[in-house]
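Quick one - inputs below.
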Amino acid sequence: MRIPLLAGLLTAALVAAAPFGVSAQLAADPVKIDLVAVLSGPQATLGQQVRDGFLLGVAARGGKLGGRTVDIAIIDDESKPDVAVNKVRAALGQTPPAFVVGPVFSNILGAIIKPVLESGAVMISPNAGPSTFAGASCAPNFYVTSYQNDQVHAVMGKVATDRGYKRVYLLAPNYQAGKDAMAGFKRFFKGEVVGEVYVPLTQMDFQADLARIAEAKPDAVFAFMPGGLGIALVKQYRQAGLETIPFLSTFTVDESVLPALGDVAVGLNSAANWAPNMDNAANKKFVTDFEAKYGYVPGTYAAQAYDTAALIDAALTATGGSTADPAKLRTALEQAKFQSVRGNFQFGKNHYPVQDFWLTKVVKRPDGKFQTETVQRVFEADTDPYAAACEMH
Amino acid sequence: MTLLVIQALNGVQLGLLLFLIAAGLTLVFGVMDFINLAHGVQYMLGAYLAVAAASVTGSFFLGVILAVLVAGGVGLVLEWAVFRHLYGRDHLDQVLATFGIILFLNEAVRVIWGSAPLQLAMPAVLSGSFPIMPGLHYPIYRVALIVVGLLVAAGLAAVIQGTRTGMRIRAGASNPLMIASLGVDIGRLFRQVFGVGAMLAGFAGALAAPLLSVEPGMGDNLLILAFVVIVIGGIGSIRGAFVAAILVGLVDTLGRGLVTDAAGLLLHGTAAARVGPALASMLIYLVMAAVLAVRPAGLFPAVPA
Amino acid sequence: MRLPPSVPIFLLLAMPLVLPLGAHAGYVFDLGARIAILGIAALSLNFLLGAGGLVSFGHAAYLAIGAYGVAILDANAIHNAAVVVPVVLAASLVFSLPTGAVALRTRGVNFIMITLAFSQMVYFAAGSLADYGGDDGYTLTARTTWFHAKPLATPYGFYATCVALLLGCYLLCRAMVASRFGRALRAIRQDRQRVQGLGINPFSIQLTAIAIGGMMAALAGALLANAAEFASPAYAAWQRSGDLLIMVILGGAGSVHGAILGAAAVVLAEEALGSVTEHWRILYGPLLVLAVIFFRGGLAGIGRPKG
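Output:
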């Protein structure tokens, strides 16, 4: 008899207190978040950045988001789509999460998005931003805090045109993201493509391609070569003495591979929505804290994941910590105001960011570590080309 | 024309790197009738050990030497702990056990050195380059690689053709039963072959480190390539491994361009853009399937079929 | 009288269907379906390997063929199993017959490698299907149906279907192994010349085995695509072919039910170790080594009298 009475009183107190902040009951009951990232195999470096960035974002708020404690389950997708689906389904079935943060790669995203959204959870991608869900198939409960993939490559196309390069040689791995990258580049590149080569994902040696580039004598090379491929390409590009041909790239010289490249990468250009040197208070705190805690320089993967924690924090603060009302939560996410490490942050109507894009350059810092730094803003408040086709219901 | 010559040079150089790995694999297979999937992780181990040893000693060459020795040592420890229990067992048991070792070593490397790729700088002596065609320099390091690869190949050939051990190895590859009945210490011969195989794979890894990315799992794809090489060449044959390695190297460097161009000529637009790269990726497998379809035992089978 | 070992296995697999599972139902059914699907694939490989001595290192190609069969029909709004299944089986034959005919020219390790080569071709071909997501894979719009019934729509129905198909494939394998065809297949493995002398054509017997194994694995691939509601070139990756081989060898290639044990052991070990540490492979690897050294004849051989 006493318990229902107590509960009644408590409920009354909660209802009364709700508008003024997080209720006592909600604060005690943690928000469940599943973090999906690749943590094993060759791509694990990127997954680690996402995990570290997100956990740092949570830790920076005292382990709470929007005043509520969080219960984070970390899921290694192993870079295998069907394994990812199974693990995510299992997690959805046990304690249904309010948010699923992840994954790193588009092919995993395509595999897990359906069960996640069907479970009613909000899905926030801290890195993968495929065109698939940016246009007609955009979804109310799906958010991207990184970029739409095409945008980053388009930056380099614009830069190539602005610099007056007439003849450009393109190089990418033979998979979907590689083809998308080249298409993205060509959107703003007005000159002639003198070679468009797709190399096998397992290729180790670029010597044959370098010889062809030397023969084609292009004004510039544009490459999209993530991970180990990029390391091999950049090293060998320098060794072949091709520095006279400007080397433009995306996701090829970023913080995830700079420690392995070292001096050979200094001066090379890339494109990004963020760089560690960005001059704002949120970013300074992020980079300092991140390096202090994890001992390496964060890349965009970590920065976007850190912003994802800030986004959830802002949205939950706006709803008073509640995730019960999907419509309210959606409004809160769409209009979330927080200090992004990129400066300002806002979503477009397809829930992909509308943001600035920068030309960046690799520098060696005084402490001997390497990072990318912004050179110039190329696009301002850029909306991706698919957003127009999105009609969010 | 110049381009063709340069591409041929690149093909030979890639082929020699493949040969260093395939040589050990084909010997272990041919002499001991042992399928060692862990050969690829020994290549990875060589690269990691070279990075570690070079940073401790401050010398690339000392680093490579130490890496080769330690890689050989690890190979012998594996032989003692695991492999010797599996000689004479079914091939499938060997596949399963050595696969377990792949998983273990790949993960151990991640635990020790982390997932992020590492770097090994070229030695200053070899870091120069010379112009080979307008706008393109050829790194001296790669020339050194070709020379070293040829020396190792010549050395192996000399040992196998000219020494008593070599004779036993040849005999073991073509008729394992006979050599055992002749009273040769099979255990010792196996350890020698195994140690040398592990050292060669480690050596290849150490030499490749300045050119490629040193990362966990870097040996996995190479293992498959090495198997392609020894199967095309004929199991147990050093000569076959050499010829096949060069062939695969040439096909990969020259063939990729040719296939893409051919697809561009025969098809047009998007079809060519899709078919060309897909075919280029399949190329060495097409070559292997073609060779095996015509010569089911490979080019130079050690055991006459 | 001893029960055949398959009886407890299938009783165990049927248990989740009758027990109240409460909140864990979704998890158990998903995990169970994975075991059953990979079990079908492993069974089919085990049939080639155990009975025929044909060690295929390219069996995952059929998983991708089955999965892409489902995906491509899905893109054309065809979901009825009455169409999907025959198409998938036919597609597997289009692949298995020519590649099998070439592969059968080789023996031993060369057979292993040539099957790998063919599966790599499937892998790269699937990755170049830009209309179906290329390397990113293809998300299904709906699961396969049976006319207007949707047996695969619920976790319970999906799991029940998978277990029923596994049982069907198991019984088929047993019947084939015991049949004249199975005896001829084993005889070819042991003494090819003699079989030829008896007037049996070894080539056509072995090719038939490859075709049947391929169809079974393609069926598993179709189920795999339905389970994940996703088709990906990764299904044909050589690592996946390796996983299937591991399941068969670990289970014990000598017995038909060993493949199911192997599939269950691999899936459960990954699940259990994965919850202990993200570096679970550092434990899993040595476990495989120990299993080889101490369990001769695989898991199916445990407890069986030696010799």
